[in-house]
Design brief:
- There is one protein chain.
- By secondary structure, the chain is an alpha+beta fold.
- The chain has a single domain (2-154, 205-242), classed as CNF1/YfiH-like putative cysteine hydrolases (4-Layer Sandwich).
- Helices cover 24% and strands 27% of the residues.
- The chain is built from eight helices and 14 strands.
- It has helices at 22-25, 38-47, 71-74, 121-125, 128-140, 164-170, 174-177, 191-201, and strands spanning 2-5, 9-13, 51-54, 63-66, 84-87, 92-98, 102-108, 113-119, 147-151, 161-162, 180-183, 186-189, 209-210, 236-242.
- The strands form three sheets. A six-stranded mixed beta sheet has the order 4-5-8-7-9-13.
- β7 and β8 (113-119) form a beta hairpin.
- α5 (128-140) packs parallel to α8 (191-201).
- The longest helix has 13 residues, at 128-140.
- The two termini are 19 Å apart.
C-alpha cells in the first residue's frame, strides 16, 4: 500500500492485500453507500471519503463524470460498464482495479478535478488516456499545461509479452509501434510509455507525468498479477479523492 498525499487530493495505490476478485463484485448488496461494505471501510478513513465509485471494467474506452446528479446511480458497485471516471466533487473516491493493467490518475491543478483510468492493452489501443483527457476538457476546461499525471503499478516491458493481436494494431498506430520492445524473438509492450505518448499528444508536458509508483506487477509479488499468478482473479485498488 502506498499513499500519495497532496493538499488537494489523496491517492491510494493498493497491493496484494486488497485481494478483491470478480466473485466479490457480485456479493455486494445493491446499496448506494459503499462505505457500508467492510472491504472498503478503511478507505473512508484513509481518504476522507463519503462515497466510493467503481465501474464494471470492460477493457474499452468509455467512462463517466461523477456529478451530484450521477453519483447515486454510479455508486452501485461494479454495475455500470466503463473504464474511466472523472469528478470534481470532494469526498467522492473514484477507483479502478488492476492486476497488470495500468492505473492512471490525472489531476487538473487549475480546476481541481480528477480522472482515474484503467488502461490495459485493449483500452490503450482504443486511446483511453486521450479520450478521458478530452472528456476532462469538455467537463472542466482542462488544459494539458495544468495537469499532473500519476502512473500506478502495472506490467512493464521486462515481462509484458504480447502476441499478434497487439502487434497488428502497431501497423496503424505509430505511438504503439514506438512502445513495443523486441527481445530474443519476442515482443513486449511498454504500456506506460504508450499511455505517456498519448497524453503528450494532447498537450500534457513530459515533466507533468510521474512514474515513481509504476512498479512491475509481474516482478513484485507484493502486487496482484493476472499473468504471474496463473490468471488469478485477485485485483488491487487504486483510489483517488479530492479533499
Amino acid at each position: 500500500m502506498i499513499i500519495h498525499s497532496n493538499p488537494l487530493f489523496t491517492i491510494y495505490f493498493g497491493g496484494a492485500q486488497d485481494r478483491l476478485s470478480e466473485d466479490d463484485y457480485y456479493t455486494f448488496p445493491p446499496e448506494t453507500n459503499l462505505l457500508a461494505e467492510q472491504q472498503f471501510k478503511h478507505l473512508a478513513d484513509l481518504l476522507g471519503i463519503e462515497t466510493l465509485v467503481f465501474l464494471k471494467q470492460v477493457h474499452k474506452n468509455i467512462g463517466y463524470v461523477v456529478t451530484e446528479d450521477t453519483r447515486i446511480h454510479l455508486a452501485q458497485p461494479f454495475f455500470t460498464d466503463g473504464d474511466y471516471l472523472l469528478t470534481d466533487l470532494p469526498g467522492v473516491g473514484i477507483g479502478i482495479m488492476t492486476a497488470d493493467c495500468l492505473p492512471i490518475i490525472i489531476h487538473d491543478t487549475r480546476n481541481n478535478a480528477l480522472g482515474a483510468i484503467h488502461a490495459g492493452w485493449r483500452g490503450s489501443v482504443g486511446h483511453i488516456a486521450m479520450k478521458a483527457f478530452e472528456r476532462m476538457q469538455q467537463a472542466y476546461g482542462t488544459q494539458g499545461a495544468d495537469v499532473r499525471v500519476y502512473f500506478g503499478p502495472s506490467a512493464k516491458p521486462c515481462c509484458y509479452e504480447v502476441g499478434q493481436a497487439v502487434i497488428e494494431y502497431a501497423d496503424a498506430d505509430p505511438l504503439l509501434a514506438d512502445s513495443l520492445v523486441e527481445h530474443n524473438g519476442k515482443t513486449y509492450l511498454n504500456v506506460t510509455r504508450y499511455n505517456m505518448l498519448q497524453l503528450r499528444q494532447v498537450g500534457v508536458p513530459q515533466l507533468a507525468i510521474h512514474g515513481d509508483y509504476n512498479t512491475c506487477t509481474i516482478c513484485d509479488d507484493r502486487l496482484c498479477s493476472y499473468r504471474r499468478d496463473g490468471k488469478s482473479p485477485y485485483r488491487q485498488m487504486t483510489v483517488v479523492a479530492l479533499r
